[in-house]
Amino acid sequence: MVAPPPMNGGGTDGEPTTLMPAWQPPPVPPVAAPPPAPVAPPVVAETQAMPARTQPPAGVAAGPQAELTIESGPDAGHAHRASDKALRLGRSPDNDVILRDPATSGHHARLERRADAFWVVDLGSTNGTFVNGESIQEKQLNNGDRLTVGQNSLHFSVVGA
Fold first, then answer.
1. What contacts 63, CB < 8 A, 6 or more positions away?
2. N or C, where is the chain less crowded by C-beta within 10 Å?
3. What distance in Å separates the CA atoms of residue 150 and residue 76, rounded to the nearest whole number?
4. pTM of the model
5. Greatest extent of the chain over all pairs of C-alpha atoms, in Å
6. Paired residues of 156 in beta bridges
7. Are strands 146-149 and 129-131 parallel, antiparallel or unpaired?
């Protein structure tokens, strides 16, 4: 049997010896479980019947469309398409069709669709709106009509007619 060391630690200073535990690395945190494997999407038949469309796709106008072509005047050569959204014509930059001549009012006229027909409405312009040379307040348009707005002469046509 081995005798314990003397209380003075064998040294000359007379203090007792203290035992220290040996160094150990810190504990390793548990490893997180890997994420579950993705689930395969359900198998779909190669072809499926699509339901019949009762409404046109978004962004496609339902009903007739028309075109205004500026044939003469300061803005000659421009064409504008009209559908279910009204087109406002005039000099102001907030119009759909901006006409750059001084004889055109800021908000001169509006082209609008009512059911399957197009109408032009004068918006209280100073120099008036004309259809086939006739001054109008509001008039239904026919394919081939000529409009005069300020110094611009416009040709109205129904697309596909």
1. 83, 84, 113, 115, 116
2. N
3. 12
4. 0.61
5. 133
6. 68
7. antiparallel
